[in-house]
Design goal:
398 residues; alpha/beta; 4-stranded parallel β-sheet; 12 strands; 13% strand
Length: 398
């Protein structure tokens, strides 16, 4: 959107993604978040390996995940921010941008130290921006039951407090301001953007202020086309657990096995380990699918609840059956469920027949699809991409 308006857009990308943005006509500047490996690496390989090695933790409660997944993830992210900061300072000095847009959950001190206007994007669930009257992030706890909130917050502080204090000191050392208590990223004094449809969003006890704006969605229009299957009277359901979730072959095999017994058809995003399992006769799929081109043609979506897929389903008005695995997926799953835009199920504790029953409920309950369709119609009248470009231009212009 910004490039169409005549602006120069430079992406800072991790080295394993080199060429990805250039192929789309953008400038790239390369950086690393860790020392280079001895062997050539696939794009994003570090995080694929990290998720694979920690996958057994996903079968545990969100409370248990705090020490065994959330804290190690924060540590890896902070280590990356430390490692890359000098390189980022070099890039900013070379490119001399009018505005820097940061989409990350951990801050980069070089951005603040540069003195340049910058925009923070919160592209995960907005519970990332904490409020005492809202559930703690990563918990998946309900809004109308506060009973587990205090214990979860206390455990989160215990697991991350020392790391946060150390990283805040690093930020100061590198020319940035200290971080707020228990936060790992600063609020921008220029502009902060959230990405969450109003239908799902939370009523806050503390207003975020004029420097915060909610785009609601930011749906790309750059996916390849997708030819829909010929209608045959059966519902068409899209199954996608994301590239990381679909790498859990045992989980994918179980889902495929159970859905094979249902009277519906499925389009499956099979993921990086697609060769390790087979789809059933009522399924078709590929390792990668053009999601935004496919979504308009399906009746429902079985998803891990990543923020991107969640907001895209809302944009296209598609009801969701959410099987959360990690990070903010638990929060999205709970929010979709409690606002009536889908159904949340326990990913690793599904009883026999529970998946099929949840899907039948989603397809048979006329109120849920109607509610989703109305939300999609509203959202498509207000593209977040256009609003974002408007706001970023205003920051760049001073």
């Amino acid at each position: 959107m910004l490039r169409r308006r005549g602006h120069r857009v430079v992406f800072v990308v991790e080295e394993s993604f080199a060429g990805t943005l250039e192929a789309k006509g953008f400038e790239e500047r390369l950086m690393r978040l860790a020392p280079p490996p001895e062997e050539p690496e696939e794009p994003g390989q570090f995080w694929k390996d990290f998720i694979r090695d920690t996958a057994p933790v996903f079968r545990k409660s969100t409370f248990e995940q705090l020490g065994e997944f959330i804290a190690p993830t924060w540590q890896a992210l902070v280590d990356g921010a430390r490692y890359v900061d000098e390189r980022l300072a070099e890039i900013l000095a070379e490119v001399e941008p009018d505005v820097v847009v940061e989409d990350n959950v951990v801050g980069f001190p070089a951005i603040l130290a540069s003195g340049r206007p910058w925009v923070r994007i919160v592209s995960c669930n907005p519970l990332e921006v904490k409020d005492p009257e809202l559930p703690p992030p990563f918990s998946g706890l309900p809004l109308d039951d506060h009973s587990g909130w205090a214990a979860f917050r206390a455990e989160y502080a215990r697991q991350t407090g020392e790391l946060q204090e150390s990283f805040s000191a690093f930020c100061v050392e590198r020319g940035a301001s200290p971080l707020p208590e228990l936060e790992l990223i600063h609020e921008s004094p220029w502009l902060n953007l959230t990405l969450y449809p109003a239908e799902l969003d939370y009523a806050r006890s503390r207003l975020l202020g004029p420097r915060w704006r909610n785009l609601e969605t930011s749906v790309r229009a750059t996916d390849a086309s997708w030819s829909p299957l010929e209608p045959d009277g059966r519902a068409l359901v899209y199954l996608s657990l994301g590239s990381l979730g679909s790498a859990d072959v045992d989980l994918m095999k179980r889902l495929v096995g159970e859905l094979a017994q249902t009277p519906h058809r499925y389009v499956v995003s099979t993921g990086p380990r697609h060769a390790d399992y087979e789809l059933a006769e009522n399924m078709t799929g590929q390792e990668f699918l053009p999601q935004t081109s496919l979504l308009p043609h399906v009746d429902a979506v079985i998803t891990h609840g990543g923020n991107n897929t969640t907001t895209e389903c809302m944009w296209f008005g598609k009801p969701m059956l959410v099987l959360p695995i990690f990070w903010d997926q638990h929060d999205n799953a709970q929010r979709v469920h409690e606002t009536g835009y889908g159904v949340r199920l326990p990913t690793y504790d599904l009883a026999d027949g529970e998946l099929a029953a949840g899907l039948e409920r989603l397809l048979a309950d006329e109120a849920i699809p109607a509610r989703c369709a109305a939300a999609g119609e509203r959202l498509r009248k207000r593209p977040g991409t256009i609003l974002a470009a408007d706001l970023i231009e205003q920051v760049a212009a001073g």
